[in-house]
Design the sequence.
């Protein structure tokens, strides 16, 4: 739903990095997306083409890496994968947790010259 | 040609927007202008609530309103009748406002003679929660017909808001809306959220909401 504006945010951030590091060309941008962030990978990739049109990133490859959504159960302190278990603790069965990873949405690295 | 290199960045995609938002907040602090970001689903009664709230605020404050919509100016026309200074912002299809767009709106509105600016964000419980607008406080409206399960479905919105107005409380008897359950769910996500039951139709609870906002505005201007 908001993937297009997120593409613009990424472009703005990378442009800043390009200026700071005096880069000429960015060949690849690697993003880390948590399973529990609100980003739909397919939509994000679909939005990149129109977002980078007429920018220096037209030929840049976008690579997405996933960060697993892990939570700790507030009842029995079991660590579990939130998506695979539909949010229910596989040990005690309750749905009450603290998420410890998977909400991230980061620009991990860029390849450039 | 320079050598090929890999730069480890590890920064949030929202870093740029967050920096812009912090900058805008610092400028507002300097000018002693308070910015409230008001969010909700479409049809929850943002504009109607404002038409009741603004006259109460105007006893003490000069009020400005920024109406953000994908299209049309019906909300701005409605708000203008309260005597508040209004600007209509078109987001051009975007489902939210970011800090840059908010700044443009503030510049367009002109805030030198204003104490409090209320930003009526695009009706949406998802995207506006992701983008810091540079507001001093965030408020949201949840209306009774939407259901008491919304904190479970849109947790981020309830997490980032300082004020929750439960609107259309006058029609509560016609819906299976459990006020206590709703409050419990919101407070579990955000123990600091202030919750006020209101009816934008009858005006019930709007006075309490205006007192809350007035206290926030005064606190902001004091430092």
Sequence:
């Amino acid at each position: 739903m908001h993937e297009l504006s997120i593409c613009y945010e990424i472009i703005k951030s990378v442009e800043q990095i390009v200026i700071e590091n005096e880069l000429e060309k960015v060949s690849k941008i690697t993003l880390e997306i948590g399973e529990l962030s609100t980003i739909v990978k397919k939509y994000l990739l679909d939005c990149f083409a129109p977002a980078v049109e007429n920018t220096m990133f037209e030929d840049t490859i976008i690579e997405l890496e996933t960060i697993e959504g892990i939570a700790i159960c507030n009842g029995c302190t079991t660590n579990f994968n939130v998506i695979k278990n539909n949010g229910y603790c596989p040990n005690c069965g309750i749905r009450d947790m603290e998420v410890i990873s998977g909400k991230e949405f980061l620009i991990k690295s860029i390849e450039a010259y | 040609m320079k050598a090929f290199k890999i730069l480890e960045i590890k920064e949030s995609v929202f870093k740029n927007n967050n920096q812009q938002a912090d900058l805008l907040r610092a400028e507002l602090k300097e000018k002693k202008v308070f910015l409230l970001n008001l969010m909700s689903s479409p049809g929850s009664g943002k504009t109607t609530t404002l038409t009741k709230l603004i006259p109460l605020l105007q006893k003490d404050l000069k009020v400005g309103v920024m109406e953000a919509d994908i299209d049309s100016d019906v909300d701005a026309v409605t708000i203008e009748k309260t005597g508040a200074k209004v600007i209509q912002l078109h987001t051009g299809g975007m489902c939210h406002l970011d800090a840059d767009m908010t700044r443009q709106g503030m510049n367009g509105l002109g805030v030198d003679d204003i104490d409090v600016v209320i930003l009526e964000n695009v009706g949406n419980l998802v995207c506006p929660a992701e983008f810091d607008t540079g507001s001093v406080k965030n408020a949201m409206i949840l209306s009774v017909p939407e259901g008491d399960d919304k904190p479970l479905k849109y947790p981020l919105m309830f997490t980032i808001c300082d004020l929750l107005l439960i609107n259309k409380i006058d029609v509560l008897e016609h819906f299976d809306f459990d006020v206590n359950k709703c409050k419990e769910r919101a407070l579990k996500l955000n123990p600091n959220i202030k919750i006020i039951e209101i009816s934008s139709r009858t005006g019930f609870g709007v006075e309490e909401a205006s007192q809350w906002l007035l206290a926030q505005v005064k606190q902001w201007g004091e430092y």
User: Anything to note?
Assistant: The interface with chain A takes residues 1-17, 94-96, 98, 124, 126-127, 130-131, 156 of chain B (CB under 8 Å). Chain B has a mean pLDDT of 94. DSSP finds eight helices and eight strands in chain B.
